[in-house]
Amino acid sequence: MKHLMDITDLTTMQIDELIMTANDIIVNPMKYQDICIRKKLATLFFEPSTRTRLSFEAAMIELGGSVLGFSTSDSSSSAKGESVTDTVQTVGYYADIIAMRHPKEGAPLAASKRTTVPIINAGDGGHSHPTQTLADLLTIQREKGRLSNMTVGFCGDLKFGRTVHSLINALSRYEGIEYVFISPKELVIPDYVKANILDRNNIRYIETANMDEYMPKLDILYMTRVQRERFFNEADYVRLKDSYILTPDRLICAKKDLSIMHPLPRVNEISVKVDDDPRACYFKQVNNGKYIRMALILMLLDISV
Ligand code: NCD
Q: Residue 75's pLDDT is what?
């Protein structure tokens, strides 16, 4: 594997290896602190980000490497009309590995054809976000001790939420996974996800607009933000944005070992009152995101301890 465009680029064995390395980094950080010395990571973010970009940068710094890049397209030559592929080809002469986010689906894939250095898709439009999925998988594995035999609820914007699409794609390869998809009818899971992943693998799922009905069955509840930037009109966003708000009351009937996840940023969909609930895992996800990106950088640069 040279680039990471989609979670399907990774075999189950490679995912297990990344999780194992991340867990080892968590326990033995000193072992890894100089391993990427003189290596450079470029972060090219044509769309806003806090966690993904900074965790990539923190990851490379903690491996002993350095970082360069830009965090908005208007501070790069893209504002002068340069194509994404020309920008990436250019950066390929300066950096050893590139993490790139872009609002256009498939932009990182197009860019990967024009450079010899590994490109990591750090989110392309509403399509896919494989490194968030790796952070999610590491979190599930650490919380539950397994990636199989679970009922996973996804709630919110299941149409435009790229983290949802990538995580469904990844989890569906494990045994005994069932889904409950909770969304307003305007934001249901896209047909291509149903056809290519769920139906093709005979995976059981329920679609509902009611957040409370299946709460007692869930092992994981993955909340999401309504993706304002992907809407064609603001009125629709305003109408749908507060469709689901998770409060302590709604969790009364949930399992004692439920894991509440969210890729963040949250807007309104999880009340801050839930943050002190021991079942809240969303800030653990943030922390795990750095370690799994460290493991991924090592894998793509073919560096081992
Ligand atoms: C997500 C994204 O960018 O898709 N955030 C992230 O990377 N942690 C989710 C979101 O923006 O809602």
A: 86
Q: At residue 192, what is the residue type?
A: Y
Dump pLDDT digits (tens) for 196-220. 999 999 999 999 999 999 999 999 9
Classify the phi-psi angles of 86: left when phi > 0, otherwise alpha if psi is within -120 to 50, otherwise beta.
Answer: alpha
> Given the CA of residue 225, which atom of ligand 1 is nearest to it?
12
DSSP structure class, residue 47: S
Q: Please report, for the chain, how many H helices and E strands are present, in that order.
A: 9, 9
**DSSP per-residue letters across 65-77:** -EEEEESSGGGSG
How many angstroms does the Cα of residue 31 sit away from the middle of ligand 1?
30
| Residue nearest atom 12 in ligand 1 by C-alpha distance | 225
Is residue 304 within 8 A of residue 282, CB to CB? The reply is no
Angle between helices 130-144 and 282-300 (to 10 degrees): 120
User: Does residue 219 come out as left (phi exceeding 0), alpha (psi in the -120 to 50 range) or beta?
Assistant: alpha
Neighbours of 224 (CB within 10 A): 24
pLDDT for the residue numbered 300: 98
Mean pLDDT for the stretch of residues 272-282: 98
265 preceded by a cis bond (ω within 30 of 0): yes
Length of the chain as a residue count: 305
Residue positions annotated with a catalytic role: 51-52, 80, 101, 129
Give me the mean pLDDT over the 87-110 stretch: 97
Domains in the chain, ordered, with CATH?
7-128+288-300 (3.40.50.1370), 131-285 (3.40.50.1370)
Q: Which amino acid residue places its CA nearest to atom 6 of ligand 1?
A: 263
**Residue 123 DSSP symbol:** E
User: In this structure, which residue's CA is closest to atom 1 in ligand 1?
Assistant: 263
**Ligand 1 centroid distance, CA of 305 (Å):** 31
